[in-house]
């Protein structure tokens, strides 16, 4: 390990007293130094990732620095942060890539310096051979979990519609296909009306689509949506339908503030959430195990979970929620 380890531990301890905008650290002074660069920093999703990473660092005796650009449009800034992290010669670097091409020079730099690389939240494609392991949510599993609960809510019978947020984004298509495949295999008595509709992650467009579907299908029993903007958009016409006596089961993905409130109010029946806390925790866990010479899987699923009005305020659920 590095000669300046003691100094680094003192510096990290001092920085931990600063506001969140500086960096985070685990309490494991004298252990591995792991630099994490996320897609963002102050957004609640990344705050939860950060917390999970710090807790894992404390358990495994590591020191973690956590950084990220102000928003996910700052591709060049993230690439600079990754290169700066590599320049400090940590034991490992973990990245949630915004733009793989922009990060390629930094990844090559890490390879030249023999610094192991890990991915979190999003895997690398063309540079996958440079990555030791990736920790992310299985969006196919998200769709399956949504479908499983959707079937239970409707008693395995009825008509339903699907509104996805993108025809091309893998996040959307994997959730969509995971849902549809599970429905096809496990709900033979349920019928999908029309084709999958797409909101382009636009709340207003999702509202218009849901309104049109409900008007065209007065006997509709349920709607599945694939992200926060889409489910919140669909919630307005669903709420109106409920008030007029047409009870529609609305299910979504993600956990924004408005979405959580709609669940508490009974407009959205429930949603599937990623677990950003576990993304952070498992990233540090797998990095430490790999650094110790243990064999690790190339891809690690950080998990997802179903939440509704019955469990939304449970401590373990709230720990993983993000706005």
UniProtKB/TrEMBL annotation:
Stretches of the chain forming a coiled coil according to its record: none
One term of GO molecular function: carbohydrate binding
Major localization class: other
GO cellular component, one term: cell envelope
Family: Belongs to the bacterial solute-binding protein 2 family.
Gene3D superfamilies attached to this UniProt entry: 3.40.50.2300
Signal peptide: 1-21
Keywords, in A-Z order: Signal
Protein name in the entry: D-ribose-binding protein RbsB
Source species of the chain: Bifidobacterium scardovii
Compartment annotation: Cell envelope
Residue ranges annotated for the Periplasmic binding protein domain, each copy included: 34-295
Source organism, top-level taxon: Bacteria
């Amino acid at each position: 390990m590095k000669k300046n380890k003691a100094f680094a531990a003192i510096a990290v301890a001092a920085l931990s007293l600063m506001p969140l905008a500086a960096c985070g650290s685990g309490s494991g002074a004298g252990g591995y130094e792991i630099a994490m660069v996320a897609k963002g920093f102050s957004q609640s999703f990344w705050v939860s990732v950060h917390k999970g990473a710090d807790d894992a660092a404390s358990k495994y005796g590591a020191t973690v620095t956590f950084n990220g650009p102000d928003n996910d449009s700052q591709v060049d800034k993230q690439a600079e942060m990754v290169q700066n992290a590599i320049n400090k010669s940590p034991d490992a670097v973990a990245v949630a890539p915004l733009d793989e091409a922009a990060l390629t020079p930094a990844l090559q730099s890490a390879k030249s310096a023999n610094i192991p690389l890990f991915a979190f939240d999003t895997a690398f494609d063309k540079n996958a051979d440079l990555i030791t392991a990736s920790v992310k949510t299985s969006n196919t599993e998200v769709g399956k979990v949504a479908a499983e609960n959707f079937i239970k809510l409707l008693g395995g019978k009825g008509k339903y519609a699907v509104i996805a947020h993108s025809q091309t984004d893998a996040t959307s298509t994997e959730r969509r296909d995971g849902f549809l495949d599970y429905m096809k295999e496990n709900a033979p008595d349920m019928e999908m009306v029309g084709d999958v509709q797409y909101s382009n992650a636009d709340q207003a467009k999702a509202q218009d689509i849901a309104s049109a579907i409900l008007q065209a299908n007065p006997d509709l029993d349920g709607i599945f949506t694939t992200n926060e903007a889409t489910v919140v958009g669909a919630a307005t016409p669903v709420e109106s339908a409920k008030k007029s006596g047409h009870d529609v089961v609305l299910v979504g993905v993600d956990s924004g503030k408005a979405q959580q409130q709609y669940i508490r109010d009974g407009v959205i029946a429930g949603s599937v959430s990623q677990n950003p806390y576990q993304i952070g925790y498992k990233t540090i866990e797998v990095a430490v195990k790999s650094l110790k010479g243990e064999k690790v899987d190339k891809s690690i699923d950080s998990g997802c979970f179903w939440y509704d009005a019955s469990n939304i305020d449970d401590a373990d659920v709230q720990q993983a929620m993000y706005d």
